[in-house]
Amino acid sequence: MAYKSSRAFGPATTQAQFFAQSGVTSLLDDALQGMSTTLFAHGQTGSGKTHTILGGEGASGAAPYQADHPLGILPRALNYIFQKIAAQQQQRGGRGGAARFAVRISCLEIYQETVFDLMLRGGGGGGGGGGSAAFPRRQSLSVREHPALGFFVDGLSCAPVRGEAEATALVSCALAHRRVGAHCLNARSNRSHTMVTLYVDALSPADGAHRYGRVTFVDLAGSERLKITDPSGVAHREACSINRSLYTLGKVVQGINRGLGVGSVPFRDSKLTRLLIGSLGGKGRTLASARASMRM
């Protein structure tokens, strides 16, 4: 079976090399200019998707940026965005033309076709992810459709952050509550799709123009061959739900690649594709990182 890709990276590729050479920085620059961009990691369970997004600290969340640390795309992106904002303000501040930036973050998971806010404060527990108790509340949220803006998650928290350290701590705390489980291919397998979105709002004092950019990082749950992982009970239901949603995502991508209109693409068949249709079939830019496992 043959696949086409714009770039292939070998197993010796470092996180820093992948971040610099894969096109991620181009997506971040576009978000700073007011575009909607998305990056998602796809592959079999245990193939390294979460490692790509979060890096060596993937099991517990996002770690502070260090140039020589095996950090993934998300912590490096936080560092990149705030460094770019600081540089722009420093370069233009003396002339009074620096844009004013505001950065906000949301974090959700889709578990068995139900959306949960990973930053929702309140009482009550749940989930196998463990971690900090700052965001322990689990309450399902509805995906609704706006006639002009498209699909959105009603009631999703969106927290303002003033710098890289605050953003990293917030994301790390939220991601600690993802649902995870163990099977023969992965001791910490994500049982849900996770979406972390950075909203970058900019106001230009020169002409009063507003720019509303965003970049969404999607850590997809891994596809499973049930004959290999042999799940039972809740784990079996989780695996079936994951595989169905990934199958729908595949059909949507195939339909778009064939030039079908949005009305002919089955993006309404899952919560994941409803929330991604603006990136996959709209005017935004998307980068897909496909992880190939030696077990395939």
TrEMBL record:
One of its GO terms (biological process) is microtubule-based movement. Pfam families: Kinesin (PF00225). InterPro entries: Kinesin-like_fam, Kinesin_motor_CS, Kinesin_motor_dom, Kinesin_motor_dom_sf, P-loop_NTPase. It comes from the Eukaryota. GO terms for molecular function: ATP binding; ATP hydrolysis activity; microtubule binding; microtubule motor activity. ATP binds at residues 43-50. The keyword Hydrolase applies. Residues 1-296 form the Kinesin motor domain. One of its GO terms (cellular component) is microtubule. Keywords: ATP-binding, Hydrolase, Microtubule, Motor protein, Nucleotide-binding. The keyword Secreted does not apply. Belongs to the TRAFAC class myosin-kinesin ATPase superfamily. Kinesin family. PANTHER family: KINESIN-LIKE PROTEIN KIF12, KINESIN-RELATED. This is Kinesin-like protein. The lineage of its organism: Eukaryota, Sar, Stramenopiles, Ochrophyta, PX clade.
